[in-house]
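Lecture notes, part 5. Sequence design as translation. It can be helpful to think of inverse folding as translation between two languages: the language of shapes and the language of residues. The source text, in structure tokens, appears below.
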């Protein structure tokens, strides 16, 4: 018996899978774009990154469609002698060119927006660091004034003597070990220095301020390095992927339309 063709043949299944992949990708793209907020650079960066991340899906769908067409006809050219504009393959190839333009335009847009977002992040880090330094100066100055006033007060001076006696007794008793003993000796040394020279409060406040400033500036430098790293990782990586996708879609669209004869090339004969 002669085998009869039925719908679930290889070309039909391949084209069906391709159509589903392309339609689902386009629906996904629309869901990413809504609600639009083009004035927000952060939103724009995230949207382009997601579009590029899913950019391979329509390309795979086009591959399924054209593989099915090749299995059925032997080329992308249609079997009829009518105009190719009425064929599904033509519109699929046109979509490929449009996606190529989309990803080509996404490259400079994403780099520019990512750079602006990175600059905004660096400005925020710089502003917060300056605010923290200003607050530190105020706190150190206030604490210095409080300690100086306390040392001039007889009652506070007596409390300082009592604290020294308690620390001396604790160290002499031998009950403190390890870190506790080290902390007690450090406190003893600081209190003795304050008692012997109340004017050393300014020097100690300056030393404390310098220590805190060092920590603040180290955290600021780390935050700035992280912001620059995110720019290169997100901006450059997504940009290169966008260019590669654009090139792939342009090649598919150009070669396919040329084979169909739309771009002036000779239409290849259809395999019978």
């Amino acid at each position: 018996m002669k085998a009869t063709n039925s719908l679930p043949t290889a070309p039909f299944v391949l084209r069906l899978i391709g159509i589903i992949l392309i339609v689902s990708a386009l629906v996904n793209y629309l869901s990413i774009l809504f609600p639009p907020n083009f004035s927000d650079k952060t939103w724009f960066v995230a949207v382009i990154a997601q579009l590029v991340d899913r950019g391979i899906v329509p390309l795979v769908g086009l591959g399924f469609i054209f593989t099915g067409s090749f299995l059925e006809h032997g080329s992308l050219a249609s079997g009829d002698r009518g105009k190719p504009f009425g064929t599904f393959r033509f519109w699929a190839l046109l979509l490929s060119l449009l996606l190529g333009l989309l990803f080509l335009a996404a490259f400079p847009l994403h780099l520019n927006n990512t750079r602006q977002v990175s600059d905004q992040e660096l400005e925020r880090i710089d502003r917060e660091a300056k605010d923290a330094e200003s607050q530190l100066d105020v706190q150190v100055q206030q604490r210095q004034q409080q300690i100086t006033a306390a040392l001039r007060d007889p009652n506070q001076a007596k409390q300082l003597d009592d604290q020294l006696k308690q620390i001396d007794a604790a160290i002499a008793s031998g009950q403190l070990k390890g870190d506790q003993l080290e902390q007690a000796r450090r406190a003893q040394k600081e209190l003795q220095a304050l008692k012997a020279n109340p004017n050393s409060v300014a020097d100690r406040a300056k030393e404390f301020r310098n220590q805190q400033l060092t920590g603040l500036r180290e955290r600021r430098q780390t935050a700035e390095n992280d912001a620059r790293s995110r720019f290169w990782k997100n901006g450059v990586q997504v940009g290169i992927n966008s260019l590669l996708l654009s090139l792939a879609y342009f090649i598919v669209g150009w070669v396919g339309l040329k084979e169909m004869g739309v771009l002036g090339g000779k239409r290849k004969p259809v395999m019978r």
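The translated text above is only one of many valid answers, since several sequences can fold into similar shapes. The helical segments are 10-33, 41-53, 56-73, 88-152, 154-173, 178-196, 201-260.
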